[in-house]
Amino acid sequence: QLQASGGGLVQTGGSLRLPCAASGLTLEHYAIGWFRQAPGKEREGVSCISSSDSSTYDAESVKGRFTISRDNAKNTVYLQMDSLKPEDTAVYYCAAGLGGSPGLYGSSWCLHGMDYWGQGTEVTVSS
Length: 127
Description:
The chain is mainly beta. It is 3% helix and 47% strand. The chain has one helix at 102-105; strands spanning 2-4, 8-11, 16-22, 31-37, 44-49, 56-58, 66-71, 76-81, 90-97, 114-117, 121-126. The strands form two sheets. Strands 2, 4, 5, 6, 9, 10 and 11 form a seven-stranded mixed sheet that branches. The longest helix is centred in the last third of the chain and has 4 residues, at 102-105. The protein is globular, with a radius of gyration of 14 Å. The N and C termini lie far apart (34 Å).
């Protein structure tokens, strides 16, 4: 079971760190992805980290502002969000899986093939 937390209300330019904690699942064995869904919009893959070498991928919309990382000792994956913008407002979800095919998905392969999903945490960025 996955649980995302750490959401809240923050002003433009502020920061939040979202932990994704697991029970009954060892996260270091899985690719972990962070996704978000804003009201009226489709779910969007934000960032992901591989299980093998902890290589990461960030969507263009968050590149340079968001950082995904692992703490295997705590069985937790984090999404550090800096320089937040109003368009980052959404419910954020973490997910775990084996990932998709790099040949098919390229560098975003770790956003695909997710088998386990957590409940989301809401992030609101005020202007």
